[in-house]
Structures are given as structure tokens and as C-alpha cells.
Amino acid sequence: MEAALLERLETAVARLEAAVASGASLASTAPRDLDLPAAADPAIVAYEEFIAEAVGRLNIAAEKIGGKVLDATKVLAEAFAVSKDLLVQAKQLQKPASMADAQGFLKPLGDCIAKATAMTEGRRPDYFNHLKSVADSLPALAWVAFLGKDCGMSFPTAHVEESWQMAEFYNNKVLVEYRNKDPDHVEWAKALKDLYMPGLRDFVKKHYALGPVWGPSGGAAASQPKAAAPTPKAPATKAPPPPAPPSAPLFTTEKSPKSSQPKQGMSAVFQEISSKPVTAGLRKVTDDMKTKNRADRSGVVASTAAAPATPEKTSRAGSFSFKSGPPKLELQMGRKWVVENQVGKKTLAIDDCDSRQSIYVYGCKDSVLQVNGKVNNITVDKCTKFGIVFKDVVAAFEVVNCNGVEVQCQGTAPTISIDNTSGCQLYLSKESLGASITSAKSSEINVMVPSGATDGGACFASAVHP
Length: 466
Hints:
Blueprint: H1 2-21, H2 26-29, H3 36-39, H4 42-65, H5 67-90, E1 93-94, H6 103-118, H7 128-137, H8 156-178, H9 183-207, E2 220-221, H10 266-274, E3 314-317, E4 320-323, E5 328-332, E6 336-340, E7 348-350, E8 358-362, E9 365-371, E10 374-381, E11 384-390, E12 392-400, E13 403-409, E14 415-419, E15 422-427, E16 436-440, E17 443-450, E18 460-464
Parallel strand pairs: 1-2, 6-8, 7-9, 8-10, 9-11, 10-12, 11-13, 12-14, 13-15, 14-16, 15-17
Antiparallel strand pairs: 3-4, 5-6, 17-18
């Protein structure tokens, strides 16, 4: 560490000597080298070493996987580098008075978080749980914005712990899905967890328990708008005289003499109404004119009435809608069964499947799917009034963004997760009673388990899952 510091100082001196030799003043070069004392702070040097080790381990695991996992990991590394730069800048800037004043200071970190979040949006991408773990974990770096106990956020150590709890739900899904399938994904998920817990949490607790160190109170503001150029004062001129009063008032309370001309507009209408009796012009309603006595007004709706308009071909699951596309039931690349946009199909079935294949069901309505065989995992996404019966699942069974689904497990399933779903009936067999059931942002979930009085084939006892 000392050798690296000496090398940086020698580089700075060489730059200063070159600037003096070229005729530049020291004052013009000082702002560029102002970050040297801050970057040499022991806490910031320790942060650099922590990032190099922890993020480097995560990046090595991501390179083995490649694809979108590697892209998301690069965004995470960029966010950690930005947080280190913010610590360096904080030592040179005046502490903001409020969170609103620090918005400009935190914008680079917010851009990185937005970039990671954008990778999870739209139609569910491959490695969604990996991308979601990264996106939900990056808000932990906002501890650099802690301004005091009254700033509206938890202390830095607690903030890191709370932020990781948001990402741990999806990180655990990665561990469960790949624990017996691919050790590279397991290593990546463990490295991501170690990066935050205990890595970042222990570092913040040791060096920045009360937040970042800010510069002197007389320094530049953290978010300082550019001062507008002063407007030159116009020469003093004599004020113009006030306008002359009108010759007659616009409104007066005095009664004006009646005009001989006839009234026009609404005045004429009201005058004509007031001059006639109230009932003038009205006709007497006789018995034969009443609706109840008319033969052509029976009150019965004719059978030729227009049929009600058919609803548009859209389905709603939770708080979203989607348009149906062409129906699919096919095996893609020998690894993934895709069942999409099936409407009103009660006899869907997948028979030729094995434990290395996965099943993804999307946009189905009023349909039932039977899975006859053992598969790796099953995901039901954006379906409404949909039923599925399966036997054995190696990794996990997931229900996401659905409304009114019925699920029956006839074999074993180690993990069953229900996310953003309204109305789910889950029937478990005796073999699947040890399944781990997790739910998030869901309601009306009922878990049916076999009754002890039978063999589990017909009678079920209900248990409401919170």
C-alpha cells in the first residue's frame, strides 16, 4: 500500500513540474490533484481493497456463466466504483443540509441502480433471479447518503442489512435452483451474499458507522447550482404618470332610467317568462296517454335486443393486463417446454419430459395442464383461472403474476414460491409436505394438505398461508 501511495505522489509531482515548465500556474493545476489526500485516506484505501477482493470474486464466477449474468455483474462493479468515488468527493465537499440538496451528488449512483433495474423489466428474461438479486441489492450502496439520524434513513450498517433482505429472496432462488445442477451459479450466489453480508456490512460498521466523512463547512456545496449572471441595472428613469380616471364608472349601484328600446338576449327571455302564467302552454295528460295504459309499452324487453358487447381479448392478473398471442406448446432446444396463450384448453398435457428440462407457462386462461413426469423446475407466469397438476420437481415450482390458479403436487417439490399472485389453491401430497413455501406480495393463498384420516388421495385439510 505504501509503494502504491508513493507512486501516485511521484506521478502528481511530475505533473506539477510539467505544468510549471509549460508556463501554467499552480493554481490552475491544483483542482485536478485535489483528490490525492482524500484518495489516500486509510478508510478509502481499505474500501478499494475490499472492492478488489469481494467484487473480483463475484466477477470471476460471473465470467464462468457469461451472458446477462456477466452484464449485470459489470453494472454492480460499476456501482461499487461510483460509491468509492463519492466517498472521495465527500471529503472535499460541504455536508448537504438535507437529502434534497444531495440529489445531484448521488445522481451517478442512481444511474447505475436504474441501469440494473432496467435489465429486469419487460418480459421475464433469462436468469431473472440473478438479475433481480443484483438490482435489489444495489440500493445498499446508498449508505453514502447518510446525513444524520434525522435524514430519514437508517444508520449505514442497518441500511445495508435491510437492503440485502430485499435481494436475498431472489438470491435464495438461485441457490435452490442450481444447487444440484450447476456449481458455477451456486458460487456466484454465495459470492454475491458474501459481498454484502458480512462484507460491506462489516466494512461500513468499522470505518463509516456514522456515515461518510464530509469536508470543511466552508467548502463547496455537494449540489450547488450555477449562479446566474447578474443583470445590469438599467439607468434610473422617471416613472410614467398614472392613467387618467375613466369618465364614468364601469359599474354603478344607481338605478338607470328605463330605456325605451326593447330588451335583447336573456333579459328578453326572462321578461317573457315572468309575464305569462306558470302553467300556460301545458297540456293535460289523459289516462290513455299514461305509459301503464299503453299497449305498445309493455315493459318487457324483446328477444331481438342487441347482445352485450364481448370483452376484449385481454386478461388481467393482479394489477396488469396483457394481450394474447399465438398459442404454443413446444419443446425449445431440447431443454425448455413453453406453454403460451392457451385459452379454454382443459386437456393440455406434457408426457415426454425428463429431470433436465424446465417448463415455462405464460399467458394462459381457463386451461388445465397435466405434467406426467419429473422435471427440473416449473414457472407459471401471468395466467388467470389456470390449473396445473404435476408429479415431481427437482428444484422449484413458481407462480408469478397470476390470478386465480389451482396447483396440485402429486409427488415432491423442495421449494414452492408464490409472488405477486391473487388467489392460489395449493394441494400437496404426503410426499411434498416438507416443501418450503415462500410468498411475496400475494393474497388469498390456501394450502391443502392430506387429512390424517385417509390415505391422502381424497380428503384434504385446509391451511391458510399468510
